[in-house]
Amino acid sequence: MFTNKDDLKDSIDFVLKNYKLVNPNVFVLENKINNRDLYVTFNVKKGDASIASNWKTILVHRKKETNTIYTINALNEIVKSKTGGQTDNTFAIEWSEFQNSIITTSPDGYKQTPTKIYDTFKID
């Protein structure tokens, strides 16, 4: 979930009220370039649909070894950028290039946003 420091409490309240979390750990990441921007990450049951709201949420995946959060479309854009515009499902991503980042798509392909942990907590 994309949010900011002013709206963090309301964002977390929305998550807790509207989603059934399958993992009690919630991580709040801070954008290292614009520290006002925050990202709330949480795990929901596979197959659960997003909930319509004013909050911006996207389905992401995580590479645990490098703490990289990414969308599948962004991953495809990374591959295209490294292979001259071709998609290649055998291409090996150099994950260390994306350590502690969120990777999303952009009009120019993909966008890498460096992050750091802002807060963590467990839901009882």
Structural class: alpha+beta
The unreliable regions are none
Overall form: globular
State the helix count. Answer: 2
- State the major sheet: 7 strands, mixed
User: What order do the helices and strands follow?
Assistant: EHEEEEHEE
The tally of structural domains comes to: 1
| Mean pLDDT reading | 91
Helix content: 10-25%
Structure overview:
By secondary structure, the chain is an alpha+beta fold. The chain has one domain. It contains two helices and seven strands; from the N terminus they run βαββββαββ. It has helices at 8-18, 72-82, and strands spanning 2-4, 25-31, 37-41, 61-63, 68-70, 101-106, 109-122. Strands 1-3-2-7-6-5-4 form a seven-stranded mixed sheet. It is globular and about 45 Å long. The two termini are 20 Å apart. The mean pLDDT is 91.
